[in-house]
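Slide 14.
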Amino acid sequence: MDIGSILLLLALVIIVGAFIASPLRGWRKQHRAVEVDLELSQLLAERERVLEALAELDFDNDMGKVPDDLYPPQREALLKRGAAVLRLLDEREFVGGQAESGNPEHAERLERAAKIRSAAKDPLEELIASRRAEKQPTRDGSAVKFCPECGSGIQAGDRFCPSCGKKLS
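Slide 15: predicted structure.
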């Protein structure tokens, strides 16, 4: 074998090796995305568990199953755990929304939701804040409207719902 054949063979081996190794380089990014999704899923599941436990504790207290001296400390512990989970969720969603999607509209929605969450102290304020958010004008200045049948968004000039076909008044 002469030197030209050896160099050609070496170049071919390098090209094939790079081609075979290319999926392995992207695997780290995919693996990190899976880890982030898994962590977010675990936090959401923990939030649901805490909310269910809190609702069950309140119900048991209303029914008289939980002694009055045990109810406040248990409720306080659940509220602290729920607040910690919500804090972690807020951190993960905001950082993940900015870093991964890069979508400014998504980041804007997250910020608006955070403002509503921080302003809402009781269920009545949450209801008022959600109603105000629904009636916020869109970018073209018109208020967002929804179909009474299916709840999907409709334009100001629509006569029929684009999703279900119900005639709008």
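Speaker note: The helical segments are 3-63, 71-101, 104-119, 123-134.
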